[in-house]
Amino acid sequence: xxxxxxxxxxxxxLKLERSLSENSIEAYNRDVIKLxxxxxxxxxxxxxxxxxxxxxxxxxxxxxxxxxxxxxQARIISGLRTFFKYLLLENIIRTNPAExxxxxxxxxxxxxTLNVDEIGKLFDAIDLSSTEGERNKTMLxxxxxxxxxxxxxxxxxxxxxxxxxxxxxVIGKGNKQRLVPAGEGALRQLQVYIHQVRCHINIQKGQExxxxxxxxxxxxxxxxxxxxxxxxxxxxGIRKTISPHTFRHSFATHLIEGGADLRAVQEMLGHASIxxxxxxxxxxxDYLRSNILQYHPRSRGQ
Length: 302
Fold this sequence. Notes:
The protein is mainly α. Helix content is about 50%, strand content about 5%. A hairpin with a 5-residue loop joins strand 2 (about 165-170) and strand 3 (about 175-180).
């Protein structure tokens, strides 16, 4: 079973016909790869032309049993529908098996947030006596203190941090750069991690500028971040289903509930570029930073 030619063709289609970004193309490909992993796991030697609706329904049951949320399942279904539409256009298949595939109901429920006490419990659950403890504390300070996406955090570099100004430069979705205010607590914790822990790691060539490293001296992976947070939640006795994105949502929720300007929060999250959109009033850096320092629960550190 070799689906590589189909994925390459699909990628070219998304780039040339849909004009999608590399990140979006990778996301679509990951949806198809999950289906391939399902086929491999169940030892089903099938080509795309062999896939029937029943196979896709079994695949959905499988990812549901793995604990994937309804929202994530819906996204994967959307990706598979696009993939099989491409195959149909290219006459690789005669019928689209994903056409009648039903998405799970996602509703309009907002993702779980953590209250300030729960955030505190997660920080308290970190074992600072371990070599990873200071790194994990720094990681949470930036996820919650700056509202970063997990990929933005793992790709963060030392050269992106402006210690004197109190800002970090972040590359977000669509390869767009934005400046995000960092609270004193996060910056102070970063200094501790860099000068007391990270300096003792045997850093691999090409990884020298990445802030968050694993024990082998390589950039920390997204999967490892999910694993770390899951373990911390268990230690802290938090029953909610949380992920790195929970900290981002909590960051925005706590700021807005505390009275921060919604426009400032939107820019800090990178939801819209106010430099190119007339809907938003230009907000200078001092104003953004004052919103963080005034309204964020951990802006002054603990």
